[in-house]
Amino acid sequence: MDTSSNPGANPYLSGPIAPLFFKTAAPIVLLMLVSGLFTVVDAIFLGVYVGPRALAAVTLVFPLFMALNALATLVSSGMASILARRLGAGDHAGAQSAVQSATALAMLAALGLMAFYLAAGRPLIGWLSGGDAALAAMASTYIALLFFGSPLQFLISTQGDTLRSEGRPGTMALIGVLVTLANIGFNFVFIALLGWGVAGSAIGTLAAQLLALVAVVVLRLSGRTPIRLWERTGKPLTEAWRRTLALGLPSSLSLIGISLSTACILVSVKAWFGTDYDLTIAAYGIASRLLTFVFLPLMGLNFACQSIVGNNYGAAIYERSNRTLVVGLVTGLFYGLIVQAVFLFAAGPIAALFVDDPETIAATTHIVRIITAAYVVVAPVMVLAGYFQAIGKAVSAGVMSLGRTYFFNIPLIFLLPFLFGSQGIWMAAPSSDLAMLGLVAAVLWFHGRRTGARWGVFHQEAAAVMR
């Protein structure tokens, strides 16, 4: 179905599910992999042309950077769930209103970030730097530029999820890839050629985001998308705020959870590894990069599943939403098996791509193998969490999205070392993955009892609860 020639057509409501699923997922996965490449290249530019202290400054404000991303995800992810179901139901005015309501909420959140920085940003960064004025100054320059330019981040995040929900993941990915490559180019100019340091990194990011926003505005003005840049809907701008926040909260808290888990691991490593602290942190840093890269395709699969499920559930075509979930679960299961096998048999050679120190390679191999010992469970659980978010079940989605981090992983990072020594830190990850099986079973049982859905997920005409 050609949505470019017929903006009102919905590509998610017809055609074979499996080809549609992979066609939707492929460009999103590509976008995320390219975005991951940018983070590596940006770090190289800062390390080579500015120095290690620049990297330290950027790392210092990582919690604040994660707060920015978490807020942007809070709005865009929650909006995407509402938008997909309204588009699927043929409610164009409601879909347009959801986007405009989210845009207003995003601008309010951006203003809140700016106010926070003005009130507490510099004192907080000064405390984090341990009194190092030069380091604090670099960190403040970097994060202040991103905070005061945050409206761009919020708008791009909202519009990106809008394009995905409209059935245009290819357009979203094309814009994202081009902008990411432009970001690399901007950073090379601003950091390497002009010598602007950490400010150049932040300005390069904002320049690329502005370029993306211009591209989206041009697309909206062309009239080739179901959602317009802005139009009267007869609804207040605040009409979708409550549902947007409720549905977006799980994804937002997941980002915060990643930051908290990392901080907890660093604290535990400091307590249990003693003289091997530096080597272990270096090995864990490599392991984290590897885990991030294998996680990105999984996010693409999950987003594709959400988009198709949300539209078909909103259109009351439950057979298609059910089959989409099956395809997502099976794909995720096989992906998890592949990741687990690769790290089991090839973790050493992969680690050797980053460093040539035998001890660091051995430590990285050991850490990765333990952390991914139950990775086969990760993908299906994530797909199920995304499914519940897509059909508007915020509580079930929240429990599945956040349970691993907040109920299991963070407590186990501190508890397991008392039973298994320092290796207990790494055992927390697979233990949490296995513990999630019980939590997922409980959620599915509860949802099945409440809605009559078969196995707690497969809805029928009389069983689905429309919101």
Summarize the structure.
By secondary structure, the chain is an all-alpha fold.
Comma- or semicolon-separated keywords:
467 residues; 2 domains; 16 helices; 80% helix; disordered C terminus; Membrane_Transporter-Flippase; transport
Total discrete domains: 2
Computed CA radius of gyration, to the nearest angstrom: 22 Å
* Strand segment tally: 0
Compute the number of helices: 16
- Largest sheet descriptor: none
SS-based structural class? Answer: mainly alpha
Uncertain ranges: 1-5, 462-467
Distance between the termini: 28 Å
What is the ordering of alpha helices and beta strands? Answer: HHHHHHHHHHHHHHHH
Organism: Martelella lutilitoris
Transmembrane segments: 28-50, 56-83, 104-121, 133-152, 173-196, 202-223, 244-269, 281-304, 325-355, 367-390, 402-420, 426-446
GO biological process, one term: response to antibiotic
Membrane topology: Multi-pass membrane protein
Please tell me about this protein's structure.
The structure is a single chain. The protein is mainly α and 467 residues long. It is 80% helix and 0% strand.
How would you summarize the topology of this molecule?
Elements: H1 17-49, H2 52-60, H3 62-88, H4 92-128, H5 133-148, H6 150-165, H7 169-193, H8 197-221, H9 241-273, H10 277-314, H11 318-351, H12 358-371, H13 378-390, H14 394-415, H15 417-420, H16 424-451
Helix pairs in contact: 1-2, 1-7, 1-10, 2-5, 3-4, 3-6, 3-9, 3-10, 4-5, 4-6, 5-8, 6-7, 6-8, 7-8, 9-14, 10-11, 10-12, 10-13, 11-12, 11-13, 12-16, 13-14, 14-16
